[in-house]
Amino acid sequence: MDLYFAPFACSMATRIAFYEAGAEARYIEVDTKTGRTLAGDDFLAINPLGQVPVLRTDEGWLLTENAAILQHVAERLPAAGLMPEDGLGRDRLREWLSFVSTELHKAVFTPLLSSWAPDGAKAFARELAGPRFDRLSRHLDGRPFLLDRFGVADAYLAVVLIWTRAAGLDPAAWPAVRAWHKAILERPSVARAVREERVLYEAEQARHAAA
Ligand SMILES: N[C@@H](CCC(=O)N[C@@H](CS)C(=O)NCC(=O)O)C(=O)O
């Protein structure tokens, strides 16, 4: 599988899933500012929205949308146990993937991290953050994972929470969330992805500064 990714973007969740499964993949870095891959290819021809992640599956299909990609990867690598096998477990996984994607990533973090979202959009996102982090905090209190074991929703949540400080949210306001995140960042697959993408992120920042 090929993963189109950008450093420290939500695409890191799929990298974590591959590392967790010990699976090989091809990682194609995208500069979402220029809409090109680092090799110079037109990424808008791959995803007209210019967004990562995009997955090229083993069959050659192009798949967008993080929640869909994570479920695809979890299904293709069943030995890693990244998604529950039973019906209720799968429903709960979809529930958390949707929550992380729509309620946290898009509703809260996207406006707060945007360089062009107007102040009103940012204020609205800050209002939304409270009840969503409260819900997450109640669920994570005393639990190591969102479900019974580490899965793709944990990978996605681990990545989204990395953005908390940059988004201007105070992680101390939700100690259970902070404790969960601190622990998950020590998981080898997560720590490796963060370590490797940090190097790529710094290189990206340097390229942008020089442009
Ligand atoms: N709905 C998409 C959103 C993906 C998304 O927001 N990707 C961000 C990085 S986390 C991105 O590529 N932003 C660049 C842009 O929107 O130009 C998904 O869930 O995969």
From TrEMBL:
InterPro entries in the record: Glutathione-S-Trfase_C-like (IPR010987), Glutathione-S-Trfase_C_sf (IPR036282), Glutathione_S-Trfase (IPR040079), Glutathione_S-Trfase_N (IPR004045), Thioredoxin-like_sf (IPR036249)
Leader sequence segment: none
Membrane-spanning residues: none
GST C-terminal domain segment(s): 86-209
Domain GST N-terminal: 1-81
Pfam families: GST_C_2, GST_N
Xref: Gene3D superfamilies: 1.20.1050.10, Glutaredoxin
The protein, known as: Glutathione binding-like protein
Organism expressing this protein natively: Craurococcus roseus
Taxonomic path: Bacteria, Pseudomonadati, Pseudomonadota, Alphaproteobacteria, Acetobacterales
